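Tip: read the tokens left to right.
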């Protein structure tokens, strides 16, 4: 069992994401919920990593020094009005609202001149980079495609004749021993290549490069599977910190890419060899992790 370190240095500080404190945020971009009572709220990040509409122009300052404006959009999705909930506690309806809000904001970003790529993330726990306890996600859109995404897309391109995610999903369902959860719309596994303990990959069955073009049933199923996976993780490891990363193809990219979600618990700390070599050492085999998590999932796989 493991416990996350306290996130906030001053727990008595007023939470800007709680109902009644909306004036602490910049004006909402979108709100979701009945009768004026918001259930999901989207606001600009007060301290954005990317902002502004300057064009992506690289400046060379020397033979090995280059820079470019940090243009783009950085938004916060407040996942629930309840300060003490996490995605593990959300209902199916609330998870659907979150996924719908994420889709809507990505669609809006595709219409902004110069932007090429969106990535949504959830950081839960101090070890995962969270600075506030209130459940929230971040959506960052940039005028460039990050290197990690470019490398992942190159892997899809090398896997000729079939979609890499479709092939992984089919192979893992046949093998079953790394399967955590499945239903008619989604498959959740501890992947064969897991770099960290209890790492999960969440794959919608429908082949679609872009999250923002996914149909409502697939979005709902992915949101629900995230809730189930996180609840199982908490049952096994208590309040472990984690990161959720949504991978969707760049806006104007087509082909064999298949949108998916990485769920990475911060269960261990990388040592010097891992940081220096890029070789990850996973101390818990994915087959064991899947067996443990599968036994905690509320709905059997």
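Filled-in amino acids:
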């Amino acid at each position: 069992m493991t416990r996350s370190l306290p996130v906030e240095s001053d727990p008595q500080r007023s939470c800007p994401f709680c109902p009644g404190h909306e004036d602490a945020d910049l004006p909402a971009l979108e709100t979701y919920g009945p009768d004026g009572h918001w259930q999901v709220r989207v606001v600009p990040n007060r301290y954005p990593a990317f902002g502004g509409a300057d064009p992506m122009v690289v400046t060379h300052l020397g033979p090995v020094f280059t820079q470019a404006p940090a243009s783009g959009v950085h938004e916060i999705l407040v996942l629930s009005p309840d300060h003490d909930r996490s995605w593990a506690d959300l209902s199916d309806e609330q998870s659907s609202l979150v996924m719908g809000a994420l889709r809507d904001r990505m669609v809006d970003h595709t219409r902004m001149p110069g932007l090429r790529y969106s990535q949504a993330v959830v950081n839960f726990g101090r070890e995962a980079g969270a600075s506030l306890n209130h459940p929230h996600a971040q959506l960052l859109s940039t005028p460039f495609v990050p290197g990690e995404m470019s490398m992942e897309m190159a892997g899809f391109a090398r896997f000729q004749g079939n979609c890499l995610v479709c092939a992984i999903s089919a192979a893992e369902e046949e093998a079953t021993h790394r399967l955590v959860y499945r239903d008619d719309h989604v498959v959740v596994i501890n992947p064969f290549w897991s770099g960290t303990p209890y790492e999960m990959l969440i794959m919608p069955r429908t082949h679609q490069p872009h999250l923002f073009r996914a149909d409502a049933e697939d979005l709902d199923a992915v949101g629900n599977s995230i809730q189930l996976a996180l609840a199982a993780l908490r049952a096994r490891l208590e309040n472990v910190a984690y990161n959720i990363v949504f991978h969707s193809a760049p806006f104007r990219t087509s082909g064999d890419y298949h949108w998916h979600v990485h769920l990475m618990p911060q269960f261990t700390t990388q040592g010097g060899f891992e940081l220096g070599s890029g070789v990850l050492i996973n101390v818990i085999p994915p087959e064991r992790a899947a067996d443990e998590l599968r036994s905690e999932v509320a709905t059997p796989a």
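The first strand starts at residue 30 and ends at 32. DSSP finds six helices and twelve strands in the chain.
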